[in-house]
Design a protein that fits this description.
The protein is an alpha+beta fold. The protein has 3 domains: about 100 residues, Rossmann fold; about 70 residues, ATP-grasp fold, A domain (Dna Ligase, domain 1), CATH 3.30.1490.20; about 230 residues, D-amino Acid Aminotransferase, Chain A, domain 1. It has 14 helices and 24 strands. A 5-stranded parallel beta sheet has the order 3-2-1-4-5. A 4-stranded antiparallel beta sheet has the order 10-9-14-15, with helices on both faces. The protein has a 4-stranded antiparallel beta sheet with strand order 13-16-23-21. It is globular, with a radius of gyration of 21 Å.
């Protein structure tokens, strides 16, 4: 087992990893930028190393600084959390070259699954259902036109290196194609330094349902059931739940088998998520694979009583999994609490938290790194907390969430708490009647 793990991340996920390491008797090293010097993850770790100024490009994305921090503290493993370098093949490779275990996918696996066009071809070879579209990267606009005609409108253009909705364009007919092609490539180039595109048939009004998997070093994998992540704004998830209110036992079995099949086909090691689009007739199609822990992993942990971070560490240390699949025994909902103003187009709201009251009680979990007096920096993602409620039924989980949101007080900055309060009272949400298009018709009522 590892003696010391460096956490190459910040905020609530860094704190989440530190907690599990402490329970396992493993020493921890926090890294931080100058602006994060007062962050709780820095104070809770056994050691802490400043790795640069506020911009993430000069700190949390600076591979040389992170490797140097690991070497001077004698860390024998690095946990990247999510975001930043968690799916960076180069970083995984450099860790390997420095004899530091990267707690995540290998560089080869990240390269294969990180490029969405290549991942789609791999999944086709594995026999996993895929959305009809291009066979890999589209070389030029002429091929783009031909592929769109063959696939049939509407289509979706996607950046192979994309994420967070960047480099994605829905194209309803031929007249929109050229503008979408040009703008998507420009956006992708600016965001990822890569303008390669691929195309898929646009599945209208789908559910976004993902399957959590774990694979070990022997090529064995299991699934830990699904999460419904359909409520999104600009392809950014707002809330998630498990089990999905759209799921049937038959569909869960099919999707779970497909995810395990995909994982074992590529001999995937570590925690990962196989993401699917599911149409109204419950046909499912592979969308992408995330080779890291997900933001929304706590709801899976809650319904099966399982520590996914602990399992990541064990698998990285060479421990074999049982191969047993897990199914939800309870119902869990997560609301992402962001420092954003929901009444002003979700504009980021960094600043100092002047007053804070945290919710609690039976069935309430809160993953957060903020405290009264903490200043939320403007340099990073605006998520400041994940509020999770768990109960015997979906109705009870919603009731707990309503109560917990009413207890949750954050003053000094704007947050998405008011939005989530309205969501939990929305009739369509309460019925479980929602798709990825839900937010297009959702009107936030002013205070």
């Amino acid at each position: 087992m590892f003696k010391k793990i460096l956490i190459a991340n910040r905020g609530e996920i860094a704190l989440r990893i530190i907690r599990t390491c402490k329970e396992m008797g493993i020493k921890t090293v926090a890294v931080y930028s100058v602006t994060d010097a007062e962050s709780i993850h820095v104070k809770f770790a056994d050691e802490a190393v400043c790795i640069g100024p506020a911009p993430s490009s000069e700190s949390y994305l600076k591979i040389s600084n992170i490797i140097a921090a690991a070497e001077i503290t004698n860390a024998d493993a690095i946990h990247p959390g999510y975001g930043f370098l968690s799916e960076n093949a180069k970083f995984s490779k450099i860790c390997e070259e420095h004899d530091i275990k990267f707690i995540g996918a290998s560089s080869d696996m990240i390269s294969k699954m990180g490029d969405k066009a290549t991942a789609k071809l791999t999944m086709k070879a594995a026999g996993v259902p895929c959305v009809p579209g291009s066979d890999g990267i589209i070389k030029d606009f002429a091929e783009c036109e031909k592929t769109a005609k063959t696939t049939g409108y509407p289509v979706m253009l996607k950046a192979t290196a994309g994420g967070g909705g960047k480099g994605m364009r829905a194209v309803m007919d031929e007249s929109e194609l050229k503008d979408a092609w040009d703008s998507a490539r420009q956006e992708s180039k600016a965001a990822f330094g890569n303008d390669d595109m691929y195309m898929e048939k646009l599945i209208q009004e789908p559910r976004h349902i993902e399957i959590q998997i774990i694979g070990d070093s022997k090529g064995k994998a299991c699934h830990l059931s699904e999460r419904d992540c359909s409520i999104q704004r600009r392809h950014q998830k707002l809330t998630e739940e498990v089990p999905s209110p759209f799921m049937t036992d038959e569909l869960r079995e099919k999707m779970g088998k497909a995810a395990v099949k995909a994982s074992e086909f590529i001999k995937y090691e570590g925690a990962g998520t196989v993401e699917f689009l599911v149409d109204k007739n419950r046909n499912f199609y592979f969308m992408e694979m995330n080779t890291r822990i997900q933001v929304e992993h706590p709801i899976t942990e809650q319904v099966i009583n399982f520590d996914l971070i602990r399992e990541q560490i064990l698998v990285a240390a060479g421990v074999e999994i049982s191969g047993k699949n897990y199914y939800p025994q309870l119902h869990s909902i997560e609301c992402r609490i962001n420092a954003e103003d929901p009444f002003n187009n979700f504009r980021p709201s960094p600043g100092k938290i002047t007053n804070l009251h945290l919710p609690g009680g039976h069935g309430v979990r809160l993953d957060t790194h903020v405290y009264a007096g903490y200043t939320i920096p403007s340099n990073y993602d605006s998520m400041i907390a994940k509020l999770i409620t768990t109960a015997q039924t979906r109705e009870e989980a919603i009731s707990k969430m309503k109560r917990a949101l009413n207890e949750f007080i954050i003053e000094g900055v704007k947050t998405t708490i008011p939005f989530h309060r309205q969501l939990m009272n929305n009739p369509k949400y309460i019925e479980g009647n929602y798709t990825t298009k839900f937010m297009e018709d959702f009107e936030i009522e002013s205070n």
